[in-house]
Design brief:
Its EC number is 2.7.1.31. GO terms for molecular function: glycerate kinase activity. This is Glycerate kinase. By secondary structure, this protein is an alpha/beta fold. It folds into two domains: 2-39 and 267-363, Rossmann fold (3-Layer(aba) Sandwich); 48-258, Glycerate kinase, domain 2 (Alpha-Beta Complex). It has 16 helices and 13 strands. The radius of gyration is 21 Å and the shape is globular. The model has no long low-confidence stretch (mean pLDDT 96).
Length: 364
């Protein structure tokens, strides 16, 4: 039996690399002679550098940057020739701030600009940025400030709230700082930055922006866009990572699918063609899994190779009809198999146990 294990992270419990290890361990208990290929995945959010550093021939550059609320935080840039890979969540991720301490209207992407600066100073001519998992909603103003952009009667590096009183914005110093550098924004989000489908209204709640505050916060971003470039705010992906996509588009970035990029770099298509079964997984297999996320991407690759795809997840929150529309044959939930308490207490052991159960059904 030949299998390919290609999971996403199990948010808050296991990295994609750890999840792949647990699945392989459990499968081999039932089928010790299996030929196993492993390809941990990411869609641009947390885990992006962790996954790519295993397959890209490069070196890791350690950097200390400003976190979303100003505290210094360690981060890394993956350098491969003149290409640099940046995981924006390392500088502005939601996971960097404890839930009770979150102040989303003040959170800044300044640290992402510092990561870009480090990459440029290291000689990068092409920077690929994974977008996702952000705790910020500042339209990428902080990033632009770190690169040299200036403003009048406001602050670009103080979160969305700092944009309220702006009277003018000058982006030229930022563009000059990265002149000649190609940017690629890897993201699963196609939303524009403003309005009902924009960053604030769609993703603000998960960052701590209340429904009552959303109109005003969206108004701040609209005001900033009117000073910077209103048309770009309507482009696909401008709303990614709280408007971080917008700032990158202002710098001329090309937007690509995060999962497609990672799949290409990890050789997922080739690996899928060599196996009998593809296994994927994530913390919650739900309706959001359809929209450019890892499972949807892995399932498509498996289907293109005419191989069945099975999902192992912390929770399974969609029905069989929706699964099959994505190309997933079956899904198994940790909470159903071992209980929610055990799944969180011992995620590695729980995932391995479910993988062993899956092998009982699918191993030949």
């Amino acid at each position: 039996m030949r299998i390919l294990i290609a999971p996403d992270k199990f948010a808050g419990t296991l990295t994609a690399v750890e999840a792949a290890s647990a699945i392989e361990e459990g499968w081999r208990r039932r089928d010790p002679d299996a030929e196993v290929l492993v390809a941990p995945m990411a869609d641009g959010g947390p885990g992006f550098i962790d996954v790519l550093s295993a397959v890209v021939d490069g070196t890791l550059l350690s950097v200390t940057v400003r976190g979303p609320l100003g505290a210094e935080t360690p981060a890394t840039v993956l350098l491969s020739g003149e290409t640099a890979y940046v995981e924006t969540a390392q500088a502005c991720g939601l996971h960097l701030v404890e839930p009770k301490q979150r102040r989303p209207e003040e959170a800044t992407t300044y640290g992402v600009g510092q990561l870009i600066t480090a990459a440029v100073d290291a000689g990068a001519k092409r920077i690929i940025l994974g977008l996702g998992g952000s705790g910020t909603n500042d339209a990428g103003a902080g990033l632009l400030a770190a690169l040299g952009a200036t403003a009048e009667s406001g602050q670009l590096d103080s979160g969305a709230a700092g944009l309220a009183g702006l009277t003018a914005v000058d982006l030229q110093p930022a563009r000059d700082r990265v002149a000649g550098v190609e940017f690629v924004a890897a993201s699963d989000v196609e939303n524009p930055m403003l309005g009902l489908r924009g960053a604030t209204n769609v993703f603000g709640s998960q960052k701590g922006i209340t429904d009552e505050r959303k109109p005003e916060v969206d108004g701040w971003l609209t005001h900033f866009a009117e000073l910077a470039d209103r048309k770009t705010a309507d482009q696909k992906g401008a709303g990614a990572a709280g408007g971080l996509g917008y700032a990158l588009l202002l710098l001329g970035a090309e937007r690509v699918s995060g999962i497609d990029l990672v799949a290409e770099l990890t050789g997922l298509k080739q690996k899928a063609s060599q196996v009998d079964l593809v296994l994927s997984g994530e913390g919650a297999f739900d309706f959001q899994s359809r929209d450019g996320k890892v499972i949807a991407g892995v399932a498509k690759v498996a289907n293109d190779a005419m191989r069945p795809c099975v999902v192992l997840a912390g929770k399974v929150l969609i029905g069989s009809r929706e699964m099959r529309s994505m190309g997933v044959e079956s899904a198994y939930a940790l909470v159903d198999a071992v209980g929610e308490e055990q799944a969180f207490a011992d995620p590695h052991g729980s995932l391995a146990a479910v993988a062993e159960r899956v092998a009982r059904t699918w191993a030949r």
